[in-house]
Design brief:
The complex is a heterodimer of chains A (79) and B (494). Chain A has 79 residues and is mainly alpha-helical. Chain A has a single domain, classed as Orthogonal Bundle (Non-ribosomal Peptide Synthetase Peptidyl Carrier Protein, Chain A), CATH 1.10.1200. Chain A is 61% helix and 0% strand. Chain A has four helices and no strands. Chain A is globular and about 30 Å long. With 494 residues, chain B is an alpha/beta fold. In chain B, the strands form five sheets. A nine-stranded mixed β-sheet of chain B has the order 2-1-10-9-11-12-13-14-15, with helices on both faces. The longest helix of chain B has 19 residues. Chain B is globular and about 70 Å long. The chains are: A mainly alpha (79), B alpha/beta (494). At the A-B interface, α2 and α3 of A face loops of B.
Chain lengths: 79, 494
């Protein structure tokens, strides 16, 4: 996965959740990071799909449980 | 008088059947009942009864055990939403004297050093060490729960529900859903919301079971319903709209599933139609209610869902539901009036707000603020909220009719109509539309052409705006006030 792509993903992630980029690292997880709720996740998925012109499988949407996984899963579709 | 919790476990307290199923643990009715008693006796010993204890948590074992134990101990469980903002939380804590908090650990940072005892998931074990049957008698009018809910004015209102209210509504709901011990519901609605709480209550009382789904994506319920062989699934409009628009929900078979329930606002007819067409063998219950009525007020029998499309049905057993005109008389078919309700499920009042209570409950009758009409057979159709009426050019316009019309277009997946201030008309009717990938100019043209040919001119939208996601409130309903603000902001920049 390219660094450029990861920069874009992080920007989108932080924009959707309304948080600072410094608050987010690969281990930032859905279960413990309060701003990340299921509605935000839905928005995040839509924005990533639009940005990279991809469409996620449902299992992948469910598997994005931390920020590191979000990047990995997007990379799977853009490679 | 029976404590609500004892009523719930009356038939199942010795049962070894599962109540809560999670991937790594199964809790039986008997286990839950014993734990609840143990925690309740610890709470009684520490705080006595008649006090307020705050509970904030997502749906999990911690919520269920703490909630029931607080009520069982003769104290009042004060419920707030997990997404509560600092200002609202401060308002609740300030207005309501609390002796202790039960808070999910991940939500602890909401509180800056509370001055009372705080219990998290880690404290349940030490609280439930005592082993004896605990019995604290209550009065039927004692308040078991206060649910803080978003008021239309912006401040939180604390709806006080008594043991009597909770027992009456649970009994009524069981009277038409006919749940048994073999029923198992997949829960996505939060328990701090009255509809979610009603799922918890009815399934304990029936001896059935619950599967909690707090997963990152709603689509995961498809797997859960099949894996845990759930018989029921309950949602608000957005639940079903997300499942239909974002997953392959409609092409699933769900062999174990017997019924769906839908409440918490009007699901547009086209989605109801899609669901009943996709699942002709399953029952689809359209229901209507309010926190002020404990949860439920009406339901439409599933066999009538096509014939009475869009209706919320009639009052549930034990509830007198009437649509009254300004003079307090029942309306005639086709007229519009306000939905009112009487029954043992109507709240005791709003906490610390006698004026607000006196407006909402008059002469034992609860005025919902929802406007409706009835058909010749007495079935009720909501046409709008009294506060959700657009006044344009001297006309009162209910957004629902326009929304339903626009939603009938294939290219439109969501439509909310709002009134924004307008120099000439008072308020201008604006349709805020979700349209997926369709070309916006074409969609706009189609909407205008449809409205112009179908609606009287004063109802035709003066503008069409596109939006990706609607702002939602804590009950996952579209927050019309925030949406209005977004649209006004957008239009002022043009």
């Amino acid at each position: 996965m390219s660094d450029d792509q990861n920069v874009v993903i992080k920007k989108i992630f932080c924009e959707v959740l309304g948080v600072d980029e410094s608050d987010v690292d690969d281990s930032t997880s859905y279960n413990s990071f309060r701003p990340w709720d299921s509605l935000k996740h839905l928005q995040l998925v839509s924005m990533l799909e639009d940005e990279f012109d991809i469409e996620f499988e449902m299992d992948d949407i469910i598997a994005m449980e931390n920020f590191g996984l979000v990047k990995k899963i997007v990379a799977k579709y853009t490679q | 008088m029976t404590n609500f919790v004892d009523y719930l476990f009356e038939n199942s307290r010795l049962s070894n059947r599962p109540f809560l199923l999670e991937s790594d643990v199964v809790i039986t009715h008997a286990q839950l009942y014993n734990t609840v008693n143990e925690i309740a006796s610890a709470l009684f010993e520490r705080y006595g009864s008649g006090n307020h204890i705050l509970l904030i948590s997502e749906n999990n074992y911690f919520f269920i055990a703490s909630y029931l134990a607080i009520i069982k101990s003769g104290n009042t469980a004060v419920l707030i939403e997990t997404k509560i903002g600092e200002k609202d939380l401060a308002q609740v804590v300030h207005s309501c004297p609390l002796v202790a908090y039960f808070a999910q650990e991940k939500l602890l940072d909401l509180f800056n050093g509370p001055s009372v005892d705080v219990y998290t998931e880690n404290d349940l074990n030490s609280l439930s060490k005592r082993k004896f049957e605990f019995c604290e008698s209550v009065h039927p009018e004692d308040v078991a729960v206060i649910i803080f809910t978003s008021g239309s004015t912006g401040t939180k209102k604390g709806v006080m529900l008594t043991h009597k209210n909770l027992i009456a509504n649970t009994e009524s709901i069981l009277g038409y859903l006919h749940l048994t011990e073999s029923d198992r519901v997949c829960v996505v609605l939060p328990f701090f919301y009255c509809y979610g709480a009603s799922l918890l209550h009815t399934h304990i009382r029936a001896g059935g079971s619950v599967v909690l789904n707090n997963k990152i994506f709603l689509g995961s319920v498809i797997k859960d319903i099949n894996q845990y062989e759930c018989t029921g699934f309950s949602g608000v409009p957005s639940t079903f709209q997300i499942l239909i628009n974002k997953t392959h929900f409609l092409s699933e078979e769900f062999p174990s599933l017997r019924y769906f329930t839908q409440a918490g606002g009007q699901l547009p007819n086209k989605y109801i139609q899609l669901i009943v067409d996709a699942f002709p063998q399953k029952e689809f219950f359209v229901m209507y209610g309010a926190t002020e009525a404990t949860a439920r007020l009406s339901y439409l029998p599933p066999h009538l869902v096509k014939e009475k499309m869009g209706s919320i049905g009639k009052g549930i057993p034990g509830v007198t539901l009437e649509v009254l005109d300004r003079n307090g008389l029942p309306i005639k078919p086709g007229e519009i009036g306000e939905i009112t309700a009487m029954g043992d499920n109507i709240m005791k009042g709003y906490y610390n707000d006698p004026e607000g209570t006196a407006v909402a409950v008059r002469g034992g009758r609860y005025y919902t603020g929802d406007l409706a009409t009835v058909d010749e057979d007495g079935y009720i159709y909501v046409v709008g909220r009294s506060k959700n009426i657009i006044k344009s050019g001297g006309y009162r316009i209910s957004p629902n009719e326009i929304e339903d019309l626009i939603l009938s277009l294939e290219e439109v997946s969501g439509c909310v109509v709002v009134g924004v201030p307008d120099d000439v008309m008072g308020e201008a009717v604006i349709a805020v539309v979700q349209s997926g990938g369709a070309e916006r100019e074409n969609v706009s043209a189609k909407i205008m052409s449809l409205c112009n040919t179908t609606l009287p001119s004063y109802k035709v939208p003066m503008g069409i705006e596109f939006i990706d996601e609607y702002p939602l409130n804590s009950s996952n309903k579209v927050d019309r006030n925030r949406l209005k603000a977004v649209i006004m902001d957008r239009r002022s920049q043009k």
